Amino acid sequence: MKDLESWLKERRITEVECLVSDITGIARGKITPVSKFMAEKGMRLPESVLLQTVTGDYVEDELYYSLLDPADIDMLCRPDSSAVYPVPWALEPTAQVIHDCYDKMGNPIELSCRNQLKKVLALYAEQGWKPVVAPEMEFYLTKRCEDPDLPLLPPIGRSGRQETGRQSFSIDAANEFDPLFEDMYDWCEVQGLDIDTLIHEEGTAQMEINFRHGDPLMLADQVFVFKRTLREAALKHDVVATFMAKPITNEPGSAMHIHQSVLDAATGKSVFANEDGSMSQLFLHHIGGMQRFIPEALPLMAPNVNSFRRFLPDTSAPVNVEWGVENRTCGLRVPDSSPQNRRIENRLPGADANAYLAIAASLLCGYLGMVQQLNPSAPVQGRAFERRNLRLPFTLEQALERMENCSELEQYMGHRFVTGYVAVKRVENENFKKVISSWEREFLLLSV
Q1: Where's the GS catalytic domain (predicted)?
Q2: Residue 107 burial (10 A CB sphere; 0-12, 13-18, 19+)
Q3: For residue range 205-243, what is the model confidence (pLDDT) as tens digits?
């Protein structure tokens, strides 16, 4: 807390946003004067916020009280001094501090997404391995729209016109939103976020930001903060930024591609490469684990009903866990690189996924392959869409059923977490099924 206190004083911070991530990735917490924050050295929150759905509902009472203390007690949230960021869009000097969640005995709470990622990183550390990741975040810019029944439209750029058609990698199309992106880059620099390249993606007003590779926990924190930052920059310019997996009909979905590699913690050398530079057995086992377990862990990478709208053949999103070198039709792409930089790009997670859980799940699947020595299938040459032996669950319901029946996920992530996560997502799915879509009204109303 001494370092944290010095940091706050140097920047004359007057308010602190004390944050934890819930299962969806929503920032929950309290806003407090800096004096109270320093006096209390953290905050208390009901543990139930970790079982809250995206609609604000909770799981059924019987399950709720079996996963939580029947008295609905508070958890203790302690600030992480390595996860402190200014809030550059705030009117008063404000900091946001990410907290870890503990019970009254000081044990990490299993339902916490950040704790789940820390648990996976500890598994790697026990083996003398150090994972490295680099997320890529896709998102859409749209006009502001108050009516959720109306389709989203592209925003007006500097030229005074809406973007039309596909503008993949267009510099001029990205420059249409220069004022917004200048604020985004300035605010990210103030916060120390390691963002790198800005790309115009395939969809209309769809963009991608790449993060530099680094420590998985640090980068999960940064993705969590970046989503808040981009949304605020967009609102400042009267635009909406959305990380929905599939926000617009007939447009590509938005992904959170995760590049991941593993180093020897003692030497810093990649364990994915042999001395002669060839692919190591650990590398192949890592792929084998991802192929085996990603279909079981898919709800952690595709957490919403809307997430599964991305997975369509012959689109930019994969529909399998095949692997191949420089092959974007595979769920697991191996980019061409030097042996030391050899990595796997997991192309399955959606931009709507909770970064803590998507990274934790992706790394856990690879870890299980390494310790269980699982061999991958043969790499794909050509279009992976034509291969059907390694397909994914088609719906969220199917995916949740596979997740809750996976003994390895329960062993490593814990019964409370797996049960609670599946329950939250089932409540959200039931809420979705109560809503009648415009397609049903358009095609069924007078026809059936």
Answers
A1: 113-448
A2: exposed
A3: 999 999 999 999 999 999 999 999 999 999 999 999 999
